C-alpha cells in the first residue's frame, strides 16, 4: 500500500449525485492508516494546476454526509480539457504535494486525463495510484451498464414529460422539449418512461443516433396531431442531418443571425424555438410551444433516484478500495448482474478513456422515433423508488340536449 | 337548497393542484341529497357551449382521489375568454341541462365568467348558484392571501434556483432563467427562497412591478460578476420598460425577425436568449447561459407543496358548502389568520372578478432587484414540508508549494 496523500477532484458537468461519489471516496480514504491527508481539488484539474486544494480531512463527517445529498459539484468543476502538457502540469503538482492516490470523478474526457496522468507517473517512476470514478448524465461511458448521474437526470426528464403530457392534454397543441445529450440519446429517450396510457406523450422522440430530417419530422408531427389532436415531442439537442450537420445550424439558414453574428448552440432555447417555427409555418398549427430543459435537468434539487444515490456513493467507495488493496490503475465501472442488481469492476483506463457510447440499436424502435420495451426494462429500475404516477378521469359522456 | 345537477369546470392554465379543487367539489357535492348528478365540463367553458359533459357521479371515489394527486386539469381546459354573448350561451346550456350549481375553478378571467353567468341567471329568474374557486400560479387574485397552485409552482421555482445556483457555483458564469408571470412577479420572486448562504444566487431578481432598463440590468450583472465571479439572475417573462413595452420586443429590434416575420412572446426561449446576448456582447463575459422554465414549472409531477394540496382541496370543498348552506353567489378566497393558518371566506364575485393583484411594495426591496424579509416570511410556509436543503464544503485551503 502506497503511503501519502489522497486527492479527489470532480470534472465536467455537475450531476445530482456527483457529491455522493466524492464523499464516498473521502470517507473511505479517511479510514486508511497509510493516508496522511485527504485533499479536494477546487474546480477540477484547473484547481490542481493552480494548487487550489481543500483539506477534506478537516471536514466533519456530518457535513460530508449533508453535502453528499446536495446536487452539483461541491468541489467545483471546470470545462478545461487537458492535453498532454496540461496533464504533465497536473502530475508535477501531485508530485510536489506528495499525492499517492488520485481519484477523478468525471466522464470520457476526465477518464482520459486520468489515463495520461497515470502514464506520466509511470514514466517518471513516481508511485501514484490513479482511479477514474464514472459520472455523466449523458450515460455515454463505454463498458458501463449506466453511469451515476444519468438515473437522476433521466428521472427528472421522465417526470417533466409526465407533467408536460398532462398539461398538453388539458390545453391541446404541439409541445416540443429539447433535452441534453449531444452524442448519446439516452436522456432524451428517458422521456418515454413518462408514458402510461397508450395515447400519452411523448409521441415522438428524436435522438442523435438517427439522422434527423425536417420533412420527416413535420410529417410525423402532422400524423400525430391528426390522430390525437395534439403532439408531445422529445428532441435531443444533438440531432443532426445525414451529413452530421447539427439541425440548429441547418434551420438557422432560414432565420437571420443575431446582432452579433452568432447563433447560440447550447444554453439557449434556439433549437426548440426554431422547430416550433417550422411546425407553425408549415403545418399551420396555432398552439405550438417549445421548452428547453436546460440546466434544471441536471441540477434540480429534490428529484433524485435513490438507486443513483447509492450507486454513486458505492463507485466512490469502491474506487478507494481498488486503489488500496489493488496494484493497478483503472476506471471503476458498473456491471448489471440481475433485475435489479449490479457489481463494480475495475477496468483498464484505456478501455474507457475518451470513448463514447451511444444508444444500442435494440433500444431504438424501428420507426426511429420511439424506444423499445428492452429500453424500458433497462431504464425503469434505475429511476429508483417513489416514482410519481398520473391518473385520469373516465370519459362517461353525458348525452347532448341542445345540439343533439 | 336548490335541487338539480352540479357542474364543475376548470379554466385557464393548469396547475399542480387544480385537480384537488375539482375533486374536493365533486366529492362534497356527491354527499348532498338535493344533488341529482355531478357533471364535469370537458375543456372548460368551451366544453359547456359544446355540451361536452362527463358524468362524474359514475366515477369511483378511489380514482377521484388518485386524480386529485395528479397535476394539470383532468377535465381539460381552454384559453377561451368568454364575452357577454359567450356567457349567455353558457347559461343557456346550464339551463337546458338543469344545472343548479355551477363551480368554476380558475383565475381572474374565469371569475369574471362566473360573475356574468350569475348575472344572466338572475336576469332570467333561473335559480342557479354560481361559485368561483380560486386557482392560478401567478398569485394575482385580489382579496386572497395567495391562490392555490402558486405555492407548488413557487416551490418548483425555488428548488430549480437552488440547483441552478449550485450548478453555477461549480461552473462559474452568468445564468439567467425566465419565470412565468406576465403582470405579477410573485413566481419570479419565489426564486429568492432558493437562497441559503449569503453569496447564493439568485443575485438579481427582475419583476414586472418595476420598470426594466437594459442598461441598469447590465450594470447590475457587471457589479455582481465582479463581486462573486458569477451571477444568477431570475427574470419574469413580463418585464417591460418605463412605457410598458415588453423588453422582448425592445431587444428584438437588435435582431432580425424570423423567416415568417414573427418574434415569439411566450412558450419560447427568446427572452432569455436575448438577455444572454446582451451580457455577452456588452460585458464580454464568456460563459453566459439562459434557461426558460416554461411549462415544466406549472405541471411538473413530484414537486408539490403539501400545504397547497390541502388548501386546493379545501377551497373546492368549501365552495360546495357555501353553495349548499348559503344563499349568495361568490368567490371563495383564502385569508391568512396566523403563522401559519388560514380561513376561507366567500366574497362577492365583483370584488375579485377580472381584477389583477401585483406584488405589494413591502415585498420588494429598495433596489428593485430583490425581495424583503416580509416576502420570505409570507412565502416560506406556503412551500410546504420537506423542502430540500443545500450544503457546501468548508474552505480549509491547503498552502501552495510550487506557486508560493
TrEMBL record, chains A, B:
GO terms for molecular function: 6-phosphofructokinase activity; diphosphate-fructose-6-phosphate 1-phosphotransferase activity; metal ion binding. Pathway: Carbohydrate degradation; glycolysis; D-glyceraldehyde 3-phosphate and glycerone phosphate from D-glucose: step 3/4. The keyword Magnesium applies. It catalyses: beta-D-fructose 6-phosphate + diphosphate = beta-D-fructose 1,6-bisphosphate + phosphate + H(+). Belongs to the phosphofructokinase type A (PFKA) family. PPi-dependent PFK group II subfamily. Clade 'B2' sub-subfamily. Catalyzes the phosphorylation of D-fructose 6-phosphate, the first committing step of glycolysis. Uses inorganic phosphate (PPi) as phosphoryl donor instead of ATP like common ATP-dependent phosphofructokinases (ATP-PFKs), which renders the reaction reversible, and can thus function both in glycolysis and gluconeogenesis. Consistently, PPi-PFK can replace the enzymes of both the forward (ATP-PFK) and reverse (fructose-bisphosphatase (FBPase)) reactions. This is Pyrophosphate--fructose 6-phosphate 1-phosphotransferase. The lineage of its organism: Bacteria, Pseudomonadati, Pseudomonadota, Alphaproteobacteria, Rhodospirillales. The gene is pfp.
Amino acid at each position: 500500500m502506497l503511503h501519502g496523500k489522497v486527492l479527489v477532484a470532480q470534472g465536467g458537468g455537475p450531476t445530482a449525485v456527483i457529491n455522493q461519489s466524492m464523499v464516498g471516496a473521502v470517507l473511505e480514504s479517511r479510514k486508511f492508516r497509510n493516508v496522511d491527508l485527504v485533499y479536494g481539488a477546487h474546480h477540477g484539474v484547473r484547481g490542481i494546476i493552480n494548487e487550489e486544494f481543500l483539506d477534506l480531512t478537516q471536514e466533519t463527517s456530518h457535513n460530508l454526509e449533508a453535502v453528499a445529498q446536495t446536487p452539483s459539484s461541491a468541489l467545483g468543476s471546470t470545462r478545461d480539457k487537458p492535453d498532454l502538457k496540461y496533464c504533465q502540469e497536473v502530475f508535477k503538482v501531485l508530485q510536489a504535494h506528495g499525492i499517492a492516490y488520485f481519484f477523478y470523478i468525471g466522464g470520457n474526457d476526465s477518464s482520459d486525463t486520468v489515463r495520461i496522468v497515470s502514464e506520466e507517473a509511470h514514466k517518471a517512476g513516481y508511485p501514484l495510484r490513479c482511479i477514474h470514478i464514472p459520472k455523466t448524465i449523458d450515460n455515454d461511458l463505454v463498458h458501463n451498464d449506466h453511469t451515476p448521474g444519468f438515473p437522476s437526470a433521466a428521472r427528472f426528464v421522465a417526470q417533466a414529460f409526465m407533467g408536460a403530457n398532462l398539461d398538453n392534454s388539458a390545453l391541446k397543441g404541439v409541445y416540443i422539449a429539447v433535452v441534453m445529450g449531444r452524442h448519446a440519446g439516452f436522456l432524451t429517450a428517458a422521456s418515454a418512461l413518462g408514458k402510461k396510457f397508450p395515447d400519452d406523450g411523448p409521441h415522438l422522440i428524436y435522438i442523435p443516433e438517427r439522422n434527423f430530417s425536417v420533412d420527416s419530422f413535420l410529417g410525423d408531427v402532422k400524423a400525430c396531431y391528426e390522430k390525437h389532436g395534439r403532439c408531445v415531442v422529445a428532441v435531443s439537442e444533438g440531432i443532426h442531418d445525414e451529413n452530421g450537420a447539427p439541425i440548429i445550424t441547418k434551420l438557422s439558414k432560414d432565420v437571420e443571425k443575431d446582432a452579433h453574428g452568432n447563433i447560440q448552440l447550447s444554453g439557449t432555447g434556439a433549437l426548440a424555438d426554431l422547430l416550433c417555427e417550422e411546425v407553425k409555418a408549415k403545418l399551420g398549427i396555432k398552439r405550438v410551444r417549445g421548452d428547453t430543459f436546460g440546466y434544471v435537468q441536471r441540477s434540480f434539487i429534490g428529484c433524485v433516484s435513490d438507486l443513483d444515490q447509492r450507486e454513486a456513493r458505492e463507485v466512490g467507495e469502491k474506487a478507494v478500495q481498488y486503489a488500496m488493496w489493488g496494484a493497478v490503475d483503472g476506471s471503476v465501472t458498473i456491471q448489471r448482474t440481475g433485475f435489479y442488481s449490479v457489481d463494480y469492476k475495475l477496468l483498464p483506463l484505456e478501455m474507457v478513456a475518451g470513448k463514447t457510447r451511444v444508444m444500442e440499436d435494440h433500444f431504438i424502435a424501428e420507426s426511429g422515433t420511439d424506444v423499445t420495451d428492452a429500453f424500458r426494462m433497462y431504464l425503469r429500475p434505475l429511476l429508483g423508488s417513489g416514482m410519481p404516477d398520473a391518473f385520469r378521469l373516465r370519459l362517461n359522456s353525458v348525452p347532448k340536449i341542445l345540439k343533439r
